């Protein structure tokens, strides 16, 4: 018999990952030619939030301009 947690996990349509992992995959598939600037990353996250595709789980305002902090920022990504 499946536990409630397993039932919830198996029917979930979200994945929790870091922005660093997302950037890494984009690099592997040659989608990005270079690491995006902090401004580009903020704009992209704002656009994806608007369409409810991504939800940052960490407070982005506290991260300022620190790249190491950006790479470890947790996000929840909705997949279809």
Features:
4 helices; 80 residues; alpha+beta; 3-stranded antiparallel sheet
Describe this structure in words.
With 80 residues, the chain is α+β, with helices and mostly antiparallel strands. 44% of the residues lie in helices and 16% in strands. The chain contains four helices and three strands, in the order H-E-H-H-E-H-E. A three-stranded antiparallel beta sheet has the order 1-3-2. The mean pLDDT is 76.
Helix-strand layout with pairing:
Blueprint: H1 4-10, E1 14-18, H2 19-28, H3 38-50, E2 54-56, H4 67-71, E3 74-78
Antiparallel strand pairs: 1-3, 2-3
Structural classification: alpha+beta
Task: State the strand order across the main sheet.
Answer: 1-3-2
Mean pLDDT: 76
Largest sheet: 3 strands, antiparallel
Helix content: 40-55%
Q: Termini separation (Å)?
A: 27 Å
- Coarse shape: globular
What share of residues are in beta strands? 15-25%
The number of strands is: 3
Low-confidence segments, given as residue ranges, are: none
Query: What value does the Rg take, in angstroms?
Result: 14 Å
Secondary-structure element order, as H and E?
HEHHEHE
Total count of helical runs of at least 4 residues: 4
């Amino acid at each position: 018999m499946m536990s409630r947690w397993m039932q919830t996990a198996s029917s979930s349509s979200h994945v929790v990952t870091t922005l660093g992992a997302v950037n890494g995959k984009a690099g592997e598939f040659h989608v990005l030619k270079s690491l995006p600037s902090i401004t580009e990353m903020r704009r992209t996250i704002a656009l994806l939030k608007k369409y409810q595709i991504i939800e940052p789980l960490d407070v982005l305002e506290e991260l300022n301009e620190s790249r190491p902090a950006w790479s470890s920022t947790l996000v929840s990504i909705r997949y279809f």
